[in-house]
Amino acid sequence: MIQLGIRDLVKYPFLAETGEYLRDKGFNLEQLGHPDWKPIVEKAYGRIVVATTGQIYGSAIEDFENMDSEILSFVIAIVLLKSAGIPTLIKRFSLSEARRAERYLQRDLLQKKNETKLELPLKIMQDLFSVKVMTDKEDFVISVSDYLKRAVQFHEKEWKLINRRVENGFVFLTAHETVRLIRKELDGYINSKIQAVNIPSIPETFRERVSDLSLLAKKFSEYVIVSSDYPPCIKHAIEVLDRGENLPHSGRFMLATYLLSKGQTADQIAPLFKNAPDYNERVTRYQLDHIAGSSGKGTKYSCPSCDKLKSENLCFEIPECNGIINPTQFGKKRTANV
Amino acid sequence: MFEKNVKLVNDVFKEYYFKHFELIHVPTRTSEREFGYQKFNEGMTRHLSIKDDKELHLLLMTQVPSDVYCSNAYYSFPNLPMSEKDWKGADLIFDIDAKDLKLDCRTSHICCKCNSCQNIVKQGINCSVCGSTKLETISVTCKNCMSESKKEVVRLLEILTKDFGIQKEEIKVCFSGNEGFHVYVVNSDYQTLDSRERADLADYIMFNGIIPETLGMNKQNNSKSTLPDVNERGWRGRVAKEIFGSKSKRAKIVQEVISGGYSVFQAKLEDWRQEIGVKIDPKVTMDIHRIFRLEGSLNSKSGLSKILCKDLENFDPFSDACLLGDENVEIIANCPISFKLKNKKYGPYEKEKITVPKYAAVYMICKGFADIN
């Protein structure tokens, strides 16, 4: 059993132990509504504002006097967010807090010589995310399957297993990579904690900042610019069929799901396959209807991801593909209104 | 397949299943698997649940399938529709097929059959009789195809054991019954990987998606690049062996490789992928709902059995997996390629009436090279 100190709670305020600590100290929501606690409410609001700008909130953890206010600002931030009920803000806050915790986890992992310090980050990863991290000289190692389950969420090439040192069932990582690997889960965990919080009513002194959050959220509406160009994988598939060459089943599936997602009908798509060496009108029609969900069990199939297409040798990446994870996103530029 | 051919092949398959119950067993965790089968000229029947060997043998005798399949996946309810099965996990599976190895020998033993008039031509894009472009490629497998496929299996096994830490006892290699091998991994660590995760695993095995930085190349500053050593484990060591061969010339080769620059190195990665990447079919490995040919069953593309290879090196599919009867049968063969079964050479035949053992007759009929007389 690891004994958590107050410093640990400042670093990782999302742990269950935070609630126990605050209860033991006698804090409750009603009490925090007193005007004397206004600075903490401001601190909490500031913590949210920092998160919404994509920054990481930095706590002064060396300053012992501020420890309680650091922990309370996290808790009150959750109360404010929950009362405002705006998913975009909750999403941005949980991601920012995940990145903040990631920084501390990394710092704790790097203090490997001090085994007690190492114990907490490893326990957090094991208990909250079921990832068993072990050490091997200067590196951290996790099992190949644990690695894959997390790394496939990343689209940067360096996270592909082939770009990792893999030995005897384990993947070797630096402290930074180890914690980066669980960022999404950390984010999901903090998000789920916020979702699970139930606040019947909030003190009057919180209301002003709750309305400010609604104004803040308006900044984050997105608009999308759409271009009508086909992505290179789709162009390639159409060219192959035009030349009367054989396009593998997976390529045909990609083409059909892509065009269906762009609003084309099975009638409009079917003629594309006429040149295929094994073209059969009835079979083509049946398969298109099946993919579109208009026959069979009614399941509508989606266009495969870029990752999947890469593995199937159907990807012909060009610079414009940068940042997309599915061909259907090609040509869409998402711009935040800030 | 023509009806008269179906009758013969059906009878021969039934006889095989009756005589070889000892080769056909349900896999472990039977009640959690989905089974399926096909009959000649009929569609697939799947979403079946089978409880033991006895029930399986009964199905083989009553239905006489052309092909029998079993899921690599485990489900709570294997006989319900896919969306209701409740997927629990799946064995890792790999398919290595000689046709994917781009071997030089292939051109000497493939030909085309016209889907319109059934004419067989050695090569071409049009049928020499009716001019149709709808040609289907048919191949027989040669000794070279098999020995090259075995090499791929050996390289796959090395990665599975050394890189992925899978024990040899958890791996099973089977001849596919046609032109390659199926490899199974029964290891709880890898069973719960989903399709995307398996795709990345497949990319690793195929040496797909490697970036120059992984092998020590520095994009910004060439001179800071450091290439891997032959003693390293994993792909870095394998690439080092590919680059250096022996250690003696290392310094000179390092200089040559690095001075070529980042983009030249990147282009070389593609060459190495062809050379050292293991040529598995990624679609099979990624598929977590596949029903895969059942061990011990016959492959309707050849009449050969999908059979466990206890000793891969000495395994001879043309004898060890050729288990049909040898009574003589008269057929009309139009087989422009010769092939060997049970150490006997057959063909080429040009629309000839011939008498051959059942196993050779079925092989040619299944390939589309012969009809029953």
User: Total number of helical segments of chain B?
Assistant: 11
Largest interface: A-B, 32 and 39 residues
| CATH topology group of the largest domain in chain B | DNA primase, PRIM domain
List SSEs of chain B in N-to-C order: HEEHEEEEEEEHEEHHHHHHEEHEEEEHE
Total count of strands of chain A: 6
Assembly state: heterodimer
Domains of chain B (count): 2
What do the pLDDT scores of chain A average to? 85
The percent range for helix content of chain A is 40-55%
Outline the low-pLDDT stretches of chain A: none
Helical amount among residues of chain B, as a percent range?
25-40%
- Number of discrete helical segments of chain A: 16
Rg of Cα set of chain A: 25 Å
> What is the correct CATH architecture of the largest domain in chain B?
Alpha-Beta Complex
- The coarse overall form of chain B would be globular
Radius of gyration of chain B: 24 Å
The proportion of residues in beta strands of chain A is 5-15%
Physical arrangement of strands within the biggest beta sheet of chain B: 2-1-3-12
Brief characterization of the structure:
The complex is a heterodimer of chains A (338) and B (373). With 338 residues, chain A is α+β, with helices and mostly antiparallel strands.
Explain what this protein looks like in three dimensions:
The complex is a heterodimer of chains A (338) and B (373). Chain A is an alpha+beta fold and 338 residues long. Among the domains of chain A are: 6-108 and 195-218, no CATH class; 232-336, no CATH class. Helices cover 54% and strands 7% of the residues of chain A. Chain A has helices at residues 6-11, 16-25, 29-32, 38-52, 67-84, 87-110, 115-129, 144-151, 175-181, 183-196, 204-218, 232-242, 249-261, 266-269, 281-292, 306-311; strands at residues 134-136, 139-143, 165-167, 170-173, 222-226, 332-336. In chain A, a hairpin with a 2-residue loop joins β3 (165-167) and β4 (170-173). Chain A is globular. The model of chain A has no long low-confidence stretch (mean pLDDT 85). Chain B has helices at 3-19, 53-63, 143-163, 188-191, 195-206, 234-244, 250-259, 262-276, 282-286, 317-320, 358-367, and strands at residues 35-38, 44-48, 67-71, 73-75, 87-90, 92-97, 110-114, 120-121, 135-139, 171-175, 180-185, 291-293, 307-308, 328-335, 339-341, 344-346, 349-357, 370-372. In chain B, the strands form six sheets. In chain B, strands 2-1-3-12 form a four-stranded antiparallel β-sheet, with no helix packed on it. In chain B, strands 6-11-10-13 form a four-stranded antiparallel β-sheet. Chain B has a three-stranded antiparallel β-sheet with strand order 8-7-9, with no helix packed on it. The longest helix of chain B is centred in the middle third of the chain and has 21 residues, at 143-163. In chain B, 39% of the residues are buried. The model of chain B has no long low-confidence stretch (mean pLDDT 92). In chain B, β15 (339-341) and β16 form a beta hairpin. Chain B contains eleven helices and 18 strands. In chain B, α1 packs across α11. Chain B folds into two domains: 3-100 and 142-204 and 281-372, DNA primase, PRIM domain (Alpha-Beta Complex), CATH 3.90.920.10; 209-276, no CATH class. The two termini of chain B are 14 Å apart. With 373 residues, chain B is an alpha+beta fold. The chains are: A alpha+beta (338), B alpha+beta (373). The interface between A and B is large, with 32 and 39 residues.
